[in-house]
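fold-stage: in
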Amino acid sequence: MQRAWFATALTVLAVLATACGLFTAPRGGSPARPPPAAPTTSPVPRTSPTPEPPPEPPPGPPVLAVKIDNVAKARPPVGIGAAELVVVEPVEGGYSRLLTIFGGDDLPPLIGPVRSARETDAELLPQFGHPTLAYSGAAPELLPLIAAAPVTDASDAHQPAAYSRDRSRSVPHNLFLHPAALPQGAAWPAQSRPVFGPTPADGTPTDHRRVDYPSATVEVSWSPQQRAWLVSMDGEPYVASDSGRLAPSTVAIQQVAVRESAIRDAAGNPSPIAQTVGSGRVVVLRDGRAFEGTWNRPAPEAATTWTAPDGSALTAAPGQVWTVLTP
């Protein structure tokens, strides 16, 4: 009787345990585990790291801009073979004048002959940051424009100790600059320095180009031996007394709008202004070939760019670069 009672008790306990869920088992016979607790927070989505922008190219060396006389009586020039960039500008009387851009501390001891600035310079110079500008005066009407331009005025009136006269030449074609005596300009902005690169695609084989002004000519002839363009002025080789024949690696013939200013020279000729902000046609000469394209400069502080018809950049060959502004 006791055995029957004990068996009945075990049966009752098993029923109670099953009802409470203590010994439930799945069909496979293994004890069931309680379901995992639901997460209390949402998972953090993965994000890709933001790429770092490429570093901007560092600025270049300090900039010195020097205005150079370019009539026959002013030749030969001195020091301009060391310039990184030479700009040929139209001036009154149908002649041309040069704006030379030097970068770095390795300047020639003497540069010249130095002549007066023009309104074209006031528009050209802002793209070079805040250069030191060396010139030999300007028309009274132009001086406020130079004062307002982003330049350090280093004319002979402001820095007389930096200039001297060569008595073997005639006035006013005999003023020369000693650049070491001038205050240093600001760094050359990287975006406005000449862009060097491999020879662009296509192009037309060319060994000679000539630009005519009313009273002057500029010619360049390709020299395969020197890999450079030999410059002639008014039909004569253009030779610097300290460095020899001027031979830039790249010449850009840049067509610009030219208008008359209210300023006139002593003979009554109006001073032309070459407009270098805007866009127009350009022919880039390098490596014995001519590349047609477009020049563009949207604002005074912006750099001038050259672009091929397909939108690719027209780069310069390493070496001195000339830009010839032509109407």
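fold-stage: in (second)
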Amino acid sequence: MSNPYQQPDPYNGSGYGQQPQQPGYGYPQQPPQQPNYGYPQAPQQPQGYGYPQAPQQPYPPVYPAAPPQNTLATASAAIGVVSILTVCFYGWLLALVGVGLGIGALNKSSQLGGQGRGVAIGGIVINTLALLIGVAVVVLYVVIPK
């Protein structure tokens, strides 16, 4: 007669301290299919050996655009340097152009939120210095007797 209070054996009769019986060899069972609710199912890729791959991003990252440059300020400073170097050979004419570009760059920097303001002021100062040196050279040339 069997014991009505006996609980089922968790080891399937394999004894104490032994592992439960493993399922036999063959094809693995498929997991139950989840309902897709009308959406297409993403293709399943087999798991390979090695490290898992990171998911691919659909688009490259977007970087912010570079701020607009004040090229008039750069041109004014460059012309100022050239006009100081050529002040003996009509460099003061270049200085007049450089001062005009510097003033235009200063006006444009207010539209660009202050971009290039320091360079524009520097161009005005360098060109004014070249203009003053040019005037001094002309005055000394006229005043000094030959």
